Amino acid sequence: MEQLTHFFKVAQEVNFNLLALYEKEPLILQTIAGILFALLLLLFFIVRSKLHYSAANKAVEKLESYVESFDEYQEALGKILRVIRGLPSESIERLKAQKEAIYKGQLATMQEMDLVEKLQKYPQMAQLYRDLAAKTTDEELAEFFEKKSQEIVEKELVNAIDAVLAKFAFTPEDVATLEAIVTYTQAQDEEHKEALLERIMDHLKRVDFGSDLNRYRFVENLNAEHLGSIYDFIKEQQEKLFEKGDTVVAAEVLEYLLENGQEQKVINYIKALQVPTHLQELYYRFFNQKGMQDLDFAFIANPLTIQQEYASYLESMITHAWRDDKALEALLENKHFERILGHDRVRQIIERIDQLRKEIDETAMAKEALETAKEAYRLALETKTLMEMREKRLRE
Question: Is residue 20 domain-resident?
């Protein structure tokens, strides 16, 4: 008190001039300034705390009434999070009474979102619930928020992924969705990641990547670097379609391969195909239609019984090649000729070719003899004319 009395006395002497007062009593002035600053700071925190509590109580009231969007839920719960340890018991009880409705209401706001957006929103919601569980002092709320934070990512998000994969159209536009799923999966802890990868592969195992052109081209648009093991798995599933022989690859897919330089893949598939109805369909579409002899012979090489005209096709090939000894020899050495036409028919064809050649040779010889005779006759006429002219001159 003596120091304070002395300070005011000095202040009166300098007519409360702060600069003059600071020169005479700097320590006391600094002390008073520090006290005033501390009081102002305390007042600021009290006011801010009051504002936060007020905002939190209003957030509880809003959650009790109507919240329209996911972000509004996040904002309201975020306000509660900042002061949840100091919320009055009345607000805590109201929050506990509404906790299930709040949870279901926020989930409902994401129903119409696409999966890419859900992969962002669900983890945000789960993290906020984990933070609420960690900061609340109420055991019931802590248990609820912790349980729901796990349920959001382990059940709700997984169900959303399952629903999308089950209805996947596998168009080029869906590539980004699959990449988003895999990117999210790769970011999880090892246990959760393995479980999600297994679920994704279970869905993909049921997909026939050769059933239509969209699905086939879907695989072509995938990024191996982004998808890693999932890409390898899908690619392997697709390649198996061409190797097993008992799978149906759509004709439009095979057409696409033929148009894009992958004829051998189609040829190998047709040779090994074990589905008669599909081989018949492909026969009508491709056999003797593409001007590709190797493709036609792939059908002939397949042992399945279907409606076909292989014999007339082979005979036609012989007809076009019978004048060319080398080409004809190469055709007749092909084992399919004898298998399809039979030994006797091949022999008859060879004999008929020989006969045709003999007839041609004889015709050529006759033609040559006729030409020789015509030339001899012409020479004889010329000789006769010359002789007549000579005799006439002699008489004259």
Answer: no
